[in-house]
Each structure stands twice: as structure tokens, then as C-alpha cells.
Amino acid sequence: MPRPADHLRLVTRLVDGDICAYDLDAEVLGVLTPTVVCRPSPGDDVVEYAVSPDLQRAFYTTLDAAVCVTADGVEIWRSGFEPRSEHRMGHRPGCVLSLDGSTVWVYRPDVMAGRGRPDQWVALDSGTGALVAQANLRTVGHGGEQFLHPEDGHVLLDVGEGQDGSVIYRASLVEGRMDLAPYPWDDRCLIGLSPDGSHFMTVAHDQTDVALHTYPDGMVTFALSVDAFGHDPDEIYVEWSGGHLGPDTLVVSLMGETEDEQEWFRHYTVDAHSGRVHGEFDARTENPYDLRPLGDGSWLTTDPSGHPIRRTRS
């Protein structure tokens, strides 16, 4: 039986319809082999997914439900999103498992799903699927990315509203209710948290700059526009990707077009304390979004098989 993994050192990928989990504590480089492979219930189209630290259960969303299954595909519980949506496009419910494994946090883009109610952020008991807490959100989102704070148990949610912008929330469970706090922007996209949780990185929704903020207050430590990287801000833009390569180093992605309208991208490293741009960074990836910095100096890209490749600079 696979040994339990540190929750934040466990990454997941959907490969050939199965939910695969990889234990990063193994410190293996190259193409990673899954520690466990979990089968969704038959007929389910998986949107987002997570695996428990003991590797015994998988959690995932479809367009109309949050689901828990055993590793071999036996369904434990299903929490439906009612009414069932008639729209198959434009809304992607998401899920993340709390640090202690007790709670599944689910973002429901119910407005775009046509359910006649506000978007929902919901906390479910991971053992039973029972509702623990929920909150109405003032968003009309297509999808949302959730981030676990590595120390204090909070969850951060970035709701993407398409051309209307992006909204960031922070929440925790306090005495059976959701303690929800929005950040005061509708034009910044959350990219990720520092390894110690003391800072987080955002990119402007209009892709004009990248900023580092203190956590939890959101105060800006520094911001860099495109010209800080030696490019014309009228022609080049910052991609919504990157993050903390390590405690002292950020990775920032820029994208543009050649004169014959061929897209190109480059990654750069930046000092996480001073904001000084170090220079170009070869992530060995074929698109700007196929990069997941792990905060320990290594990062993930994707093999043609669908499994992650763990890389370092050496």
C-alpha cells in the first residue's frame, strides 16, 4: 500500500481519464510515475480533482456535482449541483482539499450554469459530502482556481469573469461558518503563494504588470511592468502564469508576436525580495502555461504521455 504523502507535496494530473497522484517527496526528476491511480465513476467527465493525503480517496467535480470515490472507483458520496445545468460550456466547477484533508472546498459558477442563483463557494465534509458551510459570491465566473495557504488553513479563490476581470477571495472555517474576505480588486489574477505563505503573486487582468503582495493584507511589495523586462509594453504582455520557483525567486512569463504574427513567449526570473529582474529562464516547455514552479527550485512541465516532468536547472 502506498504510504501517506504530505498534502502540499502531492500533485495530481488527469491522464487518460484517470486521476493520477504523484508524491514529490520522492525527489525524483524526469517523467514521474503515479503513486496511485484513481478511477472516476463511470460516465463522469472530470473537471477538477484532488487526492487525499492517505491516497485512499479521490475527489472531483463534474459540471453538475462534487464526487468522492475510492482509488478503485467505488463511489462514496455525490453532492449534486441543483438544478442540473442545461449549459455544457462556459462554467467549470472546481475543488481543492483542505490541508488537514477534512474539507472539500468547491467553487460553483452557478450564474453561468444558468441555475438562477449567485455563484457559490461551498465547504463539504470530505468523509460524507455533507454541507459544512457556504457563501454567495458577487461574481459571474466561468471558473475559479483555489490555493491552499501552507500555514494558516485559509483557502484563496481566484474567480475568472472573462472580459469583466477577476476577483480574489480568502476564506476559512470558523465555528461551522465560512469566514469570507474579498480583496479590493476586480482586475488582478492570483498566480500563487510563496512557499512560506508570507506573499502572493498576481498579474493584472489586462496583462500590463506583475506584482508581489504581502499576505494576508495584500499590500504591494513591488510591481513590474513589461518595460522592466526590456520589452515594449504596447506590443508585449505578461502571461497569467509563473510563480515562486523558490523562496527567493519568482518566474514571470511574457508573450508577444513576431512581425509575421507568430506568437512567442519567454520566462524570466525575478528576485522575490527586491524585484530585480535576473534574466531569461529556460523552463523547457512548449507553452507559457505548461509550467508549475514547486517553490523548492524545481518545477513541473508535461510529458507527451500526460504525466508531469520534474525539472531543475542542473
Written description of the protein model:
Helices cover 0% and strands 50% of the residues. It has 314 residues and is mostly beta strands. The protein has a domain at 39-186: YVTN repeat-like/Quinoprotein amine dehydrogenase (Methylamine Dehydrogenase, Chain H, 7 Propeller). The strands form seven sheets. The protein has a four-stranded antiparallel beta sheet, with no helix packed on it. Strands 5-6-7-8 form a four-stranded antiparallel beta sheet, with no helix packed on it. A four-stranded antiparallel beta sheet has the order 9-10-11-12, with no helix packed on it. The radius of gyration is 19 Å and the shape is globular.
Summarize the structure.
This protein is 0% helix and 50% strand. With 314 residues, it is mainly beta.
